[in-house]
Structure formats: C-alpha cells, structure tokens
Amino acid sequence: MKLRYNFRVYPTARQIPLLAQAFGCARVVYNDGLRARKDAYGRGESFIPDNELQKMVTTLAKKTPERSWLAEVSAVVLVQSLADLYAGYRNFFAWRRGDRKGPRVQPPTYKRKSGRQAIRLTRNGFRIREDGALHLAKIGEVRVKWSRPLPAEPSSVTIIKDSSGRYFASFVVEVNQQRLPPLELDVTDTGIDLGLSTYAVLRDRKIASPKFFRRQEKKLRRAQRHLSRCKKGGSNRRKAKLAVARIHARIADKRHNFIEQETTRIVRESQAVYLEDLNVKGMAARRSRLGTRWFPSTQMCSNPNCGELSGPKGRRQLHVRSWTCNACGSTHDRDENAEINLRREGRKLAAGHAER
C-alpha cells in the first residue's frame, strides 16, 4: 500500500530561483509534448510514441537555441513531467474504450503558470542525508521540518509550492497494510448523518460544524478589499494577493486537520460505519431540491414498529429540527433519527453482502 507523507521545506534564497526554474521547465516540456501530439493529430499522422516524444522535447530540444536552458535543470524533473502527460492520455483513452469507470475523463490540456506549482523526482533525483537534509538534483540540500519519521525508504518526492508561497515535500512510501484490532460490532457500529447546521451526527455524539471560513471572513474581506485597490502589476498588489492566499491557506489547513482528526477517531472507535450517498453541494444550494439521493433517512420514523414516512420533506422544511410521527406519535430529533435509520439500513446491507 502506498502512502503520502507531507513535510514543510524551507529553501534558501539561492534555491528559490532554482526551484522556480525547475517548475517552469517542467511546465514547458509538458506543453511542448502536448503540442507535438496535437499537431501530429491535426496533420493526420499516427500517435507519437512515448519514447520518441521524450527524445523530441527533451534530448533534441536541449540542443536548440530556443530550449537550451532545459539542460540547466535535472533530467528527472523533465522525464516525470512527461510521465504525467502520458498518464493523462492513458486515462483518457481508457475512458473512451470503457475500461475506466467513473466520471468523464478529459484529454490533457496545456498547463499555465498558477499559484500552485510542483515537480516530481524519483530515487535517482533526490537523497535524504543523515542529518535530515533533502538533497535535490541541481538544487542542493533543502531543510525539511520532520514532524514524524518515514516508515520506509520513499520511492519519489514531489516538491510543491502553494499559492501562499509555502514549500512542501510530499514523499511516496510503500508500507504493509495493517488492520486495527477488532471491536464489538453490536456496540461500536454507527451511522453518520451529514448536515449543514451540524457537521455530522454519530451514534453517541454530534460533531459541531467548525465554520473555519466564517471565523476568517472578516479578515478575508478586509484583505480582498485592499487587494482590489492596489494597482495591477505593482509590488503592493503582489503582496496583497499573497496575503489573501495565506488566509485561504490557513482556512484550508484547519479544515484538513479537522477532517483528518475526526475521521481517524471514527475509524478507531467504530467497527462498522454506515454512510448515505448525499449530494452535499445540492444541499448547500439555496434553490436546489437535491438532498438524499435514494434513502429517506430523515423522513422515515425510526421506531422499529413504525417506519412511517411522515418526517420533514423538501428544502422548505430544513428549519424543522424535530418532528412527531403521525402514525405512532414518537417525537424525533431530525439528525438523530436519520442516524438510527442509516445504522439500521447499513446493518441490513452488510448482512446481505455477508450472505453472498
């Protein structure tokens, strides 16, 4: 099983331009390869094989005056950038043939310079020194803030610069899959009812919505107002844009940390977890009628002897947080009732799969 371990890295003032050059060269090689294949397709020629394309846009291109600067970065960076292009075409053709299931896969498109940039290096392009420094080919040793040790030797590393100007190293590590100790099923299984006012409702607790964006909304509004007043192309606008990006990054980090902590706790405390297929975006949209796709967990009375569909229905009754069943007279909390129904239905489905 492959896992990713992300760590913050701190390149020096000399290494930052070298990383920017590597980001740019990887993007140029990717676009050159895509352009070559599109041009060949437009001329009615056969599909350019991967090895021939790599020779065209890297080996031969370095000998031309227009692309001679490609030799200044590691060849591993260029090869891995083209590997992303190859993977994009393979996924697209697999979807066209019907071999790849899921949503529609679009063909590769040209890369543009954006706030987030990345390069990938395999084992022959990086080394982890004994002192903890990360040595990158043609860049040097970069300081890494190790928050935990790696469980095995990484097979590749992706150097990422996000829109807020931070740098990260993402290592891919091969580890053996380990099972958590078993728990009592009849005590530790739970349904999860996702909501808007409450983030989620479990069997024994409710997870309140953290509202990270709302807490930073005032500061973000002030930063965006300052950005809109700065002159385009000026240094002040660049600084203001970076300030806005840092606020968004802080919000995203808090959300990610919150989700990781809660999901880890749920997995460790539960032997089985039952979820419903929800259209969360549809629930959040004001004019949308989409919510539960097929199972009426909110509308169904959770009384084992009832099951009447007399609960609140439709987006106009989202404000109804408790209701009384018309058939049996039981009073239900909207979210707790949904969790009970999900847990009960999940047990039935699990029992059906076990019988097969």
How would you describe this structure to a colleague?
- This protein has helices at residues 15-42, 50-59, 75-97, 185-188, 212-229, 235-269, 280-284, 334-355; strands at 2-10, 117-122, 126-128, 134-136, 140-145, 156-161, 167-174, 190-194, 198-201, 206-208, 273-275, 322-324, 331-333.
- It has 356 residues and is of the alpha+beta class.
- A hairpin with a 4-residue loop joins strand 9 (198-201) and strand 10 (206-208).
- Helix 5 packs antiparallel against helix 6.
Primary descriptors:
356 residues, alpha+beta, seven-stranded antiparallel sheet, 8 helices, globular
Helix percent band: 40-55%
The pLDDT mean sits at 89
Number of extended strands? 13
Helix-strand category: alpha+beta
SS field, number of helical segments: 8
Shape: globular
Low-pLDDT stretches are: 286-291
Portion of residues in beta strands equals 15-25%
The Rg value, from CA coordinates, equals 26 Å
Topology:
Layout (H helix, E strand, L loop, with lengths): L1 E9 L4 H28 L7 H10 L15 H23 L19 E6 L3 E3 L5 E3 L3 E6 L10 E6 L5 E8 L10 H4 L1 E5 L3 E4 L4 E3 L3 H18 L5 H35 L3 E3 L4 H5 L37 E3 L6 E3 H22 L1
